[in-house]
User: What shape does this take?
Amino acid sequence: MSITIQQTAATPYSRVLGVGGVRGDRAVPNDELVGPIDSSDEWIRQRTGIITRTRSGPEVDVLDLAEGAARKALEHAGIDASQLDVVILSTVTYFRQTPAGATQVADRIGATPSAAYDISAACAGYTYGIAQADALVRSGVAKHVLVIGAEKMSDFVDPTDRSISFLLGDGAGAAVVGPSDFPGIGPTIWGSDGGRSEVINQNLTWRQAIDEGTWPTLRQEGPTVFKWASFQMAPVAQQALDAAGVTADQIQAFIPHQANMRIIDQLIKQLKLPDGIAVGRDIAETGNTSAASIPLALERLYREGQVTSGDLALQIGFGAGLVYGAQVIVLP
Amino acid sequence: MALSEQDVLAGLTEIIVEETGIAAGDVASEKSFTDDLDIDSLSMMTIVAQAEDKFEVTIPDDEVKNLSTVGDAVAFITKAQA
Assistant: This one.
C-alpha cells in the first residue's frame, strides 16, 4: 500500500506588510564627478535628472546597508525578525560568492534559522524578490518573507566612465511580505533577454580582472538602454496593470526603477498615467541604486506624504540581463 | 503602400516637433540632428522609437549613429519600408 505524504497548504492572498530603506550617508554632488568625464552639472541634470547621489564610505559594506533596511521594514510591518521564514537578498555588489549575504543579514537581525539566499537580477531584483515572496507565502511554503534590495554601487564605478558610473548611488530597501485577508500583490510580469547581455554589464569577469590586476566596473550603452527601458518596458508595465485588473487611472502611485528621470517621464507618457499620480523620483537625490531603488523611492513617497496605506502602486524594475519585472501592489 | 520621401519627411517632422518643440519650419532634410537641431542622444532614441512605430520599420540601434541629418533618416526609413 502506498503512503500519501502531506504537502503545505496554500493560503489565498499575500501582501506587503511593511517597507523601509537606508541610503549612503554622503550626498555626492555632480560637480564632484564632472572633472574626469569632462562634463558639467548642467549636462548631468539635463540628461539624467540627478542632482546628487548618496554614497557610503569604505567603512560601510552592502550587508550593513541591507541590515539597516531590513530593520526598518520589520519595524514598519510590526513583525519580529523571529517570525521570518525566508530572507531574500537581491544584490549585484556583494563580493563574496559564498556563503550568501542573506544568511549574514538574517543572523544579524535575529532571523536565524530562517531560510536565506541571494538572488541576482540587477535593477529588477526587488520586483523579482517580491514575485518570489508572493509565491512562497501563497503556496504556504513560508508565512513571512523579507525581501531586501541592497547595493553599494560605488564599489563598481570608474570615475572616467561616461556611460553609467556618475549615475550610481548606494542604498538598500526592504519589504516584508506575509499572508493577507485580501489580494495585495498582483500577478508579476517578468522576463529576461540574455541575448542583450552586453548593453549593461560588469565589464570584466572576476577571473579577467584578477588576471589583468584590475577591478571590474559597470558599463552600459546608454541610448540603447534608454530606448529599451522607455519603449519596451511601458508594455510590460501595462501588462502588470491588466493582469491585476486595474487601469492607469485607478492607481495612486507609479514607482519605476530609478535609472534616469527621462526614462521615468517617458514611461509616464507611454502609459498615459493621469496627472497628479504620485511618482517615484528619488533618483534626483539618491541616484541609481539598482535593486534598492524601488523601495527607496517608495520610502520617500511615504516620507513626503504622497502615498498612504491602501493606495495601489505600480512598480517596475528593469536592468542588466536584460531582465525586467512588474507588479501592482497594495501599499502597506 | 510605401510612403514617398516627401511623406516620410512630413511624418518625421511631426515626430521631431512633438519631441523637441522645434518649429516645423526649422526641420529640413539637410539639418543635422545634433549640430543644427540640438537633439541629444536620448531624444534621438525617442524620435527613432516613434518613427519605428509610425512607419512600421525597424531602425537598429547600431544604425542610429549613421543618421546624421534628417535626410539620412528619411532615406533610411523610405528604403526600410520597401
Notes: Chain A has nine helices and 14 strands. Chain A has a mean pLDDT of 97. The longest helix of chain A spans residues 222-244. The two ends of chain A are 49 Å apart (CA to CA).
